[in-house]
Amino acid sequence: ISITLGNGWYNPLPLRMWGKWNLREQLTIGDPCTTGLIQITYTDGSKDIIPTDHTWQVIPSPILRNNIYLGEHYDARLEQETINNPETVLENPRYAVKVPGPQGKLTAQLQPPIRVIQVVKPLSIREIQSGIYIVDMGQNFAG
Fold it and tell me: Which residue in 24, 99, 127, 136 has a CA-CA distance of 20 to 30 Å to 92?
């Protein structure tokens, strides 16, 4: 199981989006973090609960930057195809750091999950320098 964290509204880039206001100065911000419980119910009725904690391993992401308004910078060369394989052993793994979390009860997300609803194919791909490309998708979008 893997979890991908992003910035979204919580950790925006320092941008002046509406004239004089820097969005980052107007919001409660911080580094992306997560908390969760995985409940496994076996066929015999027994259960295991696995919390997110300091034993979870951390790896670099192919998502280099992301912003609620500016979309995402993604480097597919950094993808790790075996990350969800339980047989994978990471060399020199880093581990999650425990941080003080929000108070209150952990509840299910009330928003619908993010799903692929459309695949957009590029109208054109131009190499502007060796190894640097501009991809025209024909529309603006994020996700």
Answer: 99
* Alpha carbons within 13 A on the beta-carbon side of 93: 12
Tell me whether residue 20 is in a domain. yes
Instruction: Look at the chain and count its residues.
Output: 143
Over residues 60-69, the mean pLDDT reads 82
| Beta-bridge mates of residue 135 | 125
Q: Which of 110, 124, 114, 119 is nearest to 141 (CA)?
A: 119
Smallest CA-to-CA distance from 114 within 95, 93, 142, 139 is with 142
- Three-state secondary-structure class, residue 125: strand
Whether the predicted pLDDT of 143 surpasses 60: no
Beta carbons within 10 angstroms of residue 70's beta carbon: 13
Give the global pTM: 0.57
28 Cα distance to chain centroid: 19
Does the residue 92 lie in any domain? yes
How many Cα atoms within 13 Å fall on the side-chain side of residue 123?
Answer: 5
Query: Could you give the CA distance from residue 31 to residue 99 in angstroms, rounded to a whole number?
Result: 10
| 5 in any annotated domain | no
